Amino acid sequence: MQSVAFTLSPSLSLPLRNTSLQHASRPFLSLRLFAKHTEAVNSNGASSSSSSTSFLRRSWTLSPSSSFKFRPLPPSPPRAAESAVPDSAPADNSLFKTLELGALFGLWYLFNIYFNIYNKQVLKAFHYPVTVTLVQFAVGTVLVAFMWGLNLYKRPKLSSAMLGAILPLAAVHTLGNLFTNMSLGKVAVSFTHTIKAMEPFFSVVLSAMFLGEFPTPWVVGSLVPIVGGVALASVTEASFNWAGFWSAMASNVTNQSRNVLSKKAMVNKEDSMDNITLFSIITVMSFFLLAPVAVFKEGVKFTPAYLQSAGLNVRQLYIRSLLAALCFHAYQQVSYMILQRVSPVTHSVGNCVKRVVVIVSSVIFFQTPVSPVNAFGTAVALAGVFLYSRVKRIKSKPKTA
C-alpha cells in the first residue's frame, strides 16, 4: 500500500490514518500541509521507480474525526512591527547621557572655581593653613558620617589589613592638600595652579623610580613644554615667592605619590572598593591624622574669641570656610562620578580644561596682574598637559628578536 507522509513544518511529521468518505457530511477542517511522496513498495519487496517530489505545497482536507498526533509548534517569533523598538529610544537615551555628563563636567568646574575663590579669601584673612585644611577635613568627615548614618551610601566593612593599606594614601593625601593651601596662602591662585600643571612630570618620574614604568618618547616630548612653560611663568610671576613655589611643588610630589602608592598597595579583589568609598575613608583618616598636628603647630585658633580679638569678621570667615569645604568635597565627589562614566584619558583632558577654567576665573575675580610673557608661559604649560593626556596612551612597539 502506498503511504504518504504529511509535514506541518520542516521539523514535524504527522502520520495520518485513512479517512472514510462516510464522514463527508461532517464539517471539514482545512489545513495547509506540505506533502512528501515516498517510494511505494510492492508485495515482492521491490520498490517502484516512480519519481519523488519533495516538499510540494498542497492543500489537504481533513475531517474532525481524523485522529492524528502532533507536538505543538514552538512559539513563533514576534512580528517585526511588535518587536521593533522605536528608533527614537536609543537616540533619546544617548542624548540624556550626554546631557548628564555635560552637567557633571559643569558642576566639577563650578565647584572648583568657588572652592579656590572662597579658600583664597579665607587664607588671605586667616594665615593658618594647617587649621584651614583641618576644617575642610572636619566638614568632610561630618558629610561622610551623615551619608553612612542615613544609608545614603553603603558603609564599607573594613579590616585591619585594609586600613593598613589605606593609611599611607591618607597620609600623602593630607600632605598634598596641606601644601596646596600653604601655596594658595602665599601666591596667587593662578600661579599655584600653573605650578600644579607639572603633576605629569612628577607622575612620570615617580612611576619610573618605584614602579619600573618607563615613559615612551612621546610622553617625554610632552613634558618639555610643561616644564618650560612653568619656568617661564614663574620667572614673570608678579606674586612669586619661594615659599609658595616650593609648597606647590611639594603638593605635586605628594599627590603623585598617592597615585604610585595606590598601585603598589593593591588590595585583593574581594576587598576592593569604589573610588567614592575610598575617598570617604581617606577623608576621615586625614582628619584624625592632621588634628594633633594642627593643635601642636598652630594651637586652637578657630574660636570666635580668637577671631574677634584678631579683628576678623567671625560670621563671614565661618561661612566662607564652610562653603570652601563643601565645594572641596563636592568637586571631589563629582570628579569620581565622571571617572566612572568616561575613560581615564577623557578624565585627564577634562582635568586639564578645569585647570584653565580655574586660572582664568581667578585672574578675573581677584584682578591678578598678568603680563603677556606670563600668560604665554602658562598657556604653553597647559598645552603640554593636554598633549601629555593624549600621548600617554600610545604604547611603544615591542622590540622584535
TrEMBL record:
It is a multi-pass membrane protein. GO terms for cellular component: chloroplast membrane. GO terms for molecular function: organophosphate ester transmembrane transporter activity; phosphoglycerate transmembrane transporter activity. The chain crosses the membrane at residues 101-118, 130-149, 161-180, 201-220, 276-296, 317-339, 359-388. The keyword Cell wall biogenesis/degradation does not apply. It holds the Pfam family TPT. InterPro entries: EmrE-like, Sugar_P_trans_dom, Tpt_PEP_transl, TPT_transporter. Keywords: Chloroplast, Membrane, Plastid, Transit peptide, Transmembrane, Transmembrane helix, Transport. Its main location: plastid. It comes from the Eukaryota. Residues 100-389 form the Sugar phosphate transporter domain. It is found in: Plastid, Chloroplast membrane. This is Sugar phosphate transporter domain-containing protein.
